[in-house]
Amino acid sequence: MSFGFTIEVWGDRALFTRPELSVERFTYDFITPSAARGLVEAIYWHPGLRVVIDRIQVINPIEFTTVRRNEVKSKALASSLRSSLEGGAAMPYINTKEDIQQRAAVILTNVRYAIAFHFEMTEKANASDNPGKFTDIFRRRIEKGQCYAQPYFGAREFPAYFKACPEGIAPRGAYAGSGERDFGLMLFDMDYSNERDIVPMFYRAIMKNGIVEVSESEVYR
């Protein structure tokens, strides 16, 4: 059994990085399903439920700009952390003063989307959990603007704001009546079923009159 909601989300900037570009960041044209799921889970998450993105509506025109961002050039390797915990080696760290590096990024500006999603119960739900309970919690948190962590659009410096869509109806977007547009393959989500072999999943992002039907798309691994 599943229960659905529609929220409107917006922000000044967004960066949904294309994974095929390893150095300079270049954003997708609109929010990815995985970023939308992460945004919803920032509002409410529980091991007894699973959030599923059904539909994404692009409300504002797609606009890009270029910025320079401070990043670090090093990575904290999971193997080094494991060696420290299991073998007593020195704990690895990143010195941001030494490793800081400026990189250019192509980002989105003035973004606004409507995200339709539902949740499904999982085997991790306990005896006191039920769909009605989770539905009430979701509805209450969305209406009050409550969240566990600040939702963001791809990067933490780009905060996202949200509100409920009255009766699940999103405002008319800039691409209403514009027909069909194919954005090619886009990151769908990551498959975490095997912790030692996390696999990216992709889907064909086709927007029809400003709406992408995520749940009806075929997923490629």
Protein model, in words:
The model has no long low-confidence stretch (mean pLDDT 89). This protein has 221 residues and is an alpha+beta fold. It contains four helices and ten strands. The two termini are 27 Å apart. A hairpin with a 2-residue loop joins strand 8 and strand 9.
Furnish the topology, listing elements before pairings.
Elements: E1 2-14, E2 25-26, H1 33-43, E3 49-58, E4 64-72, H2 78-87, H3 96-99, E5 100-121, H4 131-144, E6 161-164, E7 180-191, E8 199-208, E9 211-213, E10 219-220
Parallel strand pairs: 2-5
Antiparallel strand pairs: 1-5, 1-6, 3-5, 3-9, 4-5, 7-8, 8-9, 8-10
Provide the descriptors you would attach to this structure in a database record:
alpha+beta; 10-stranded mixed beta sheet; 10 strands; 39% strand; globular
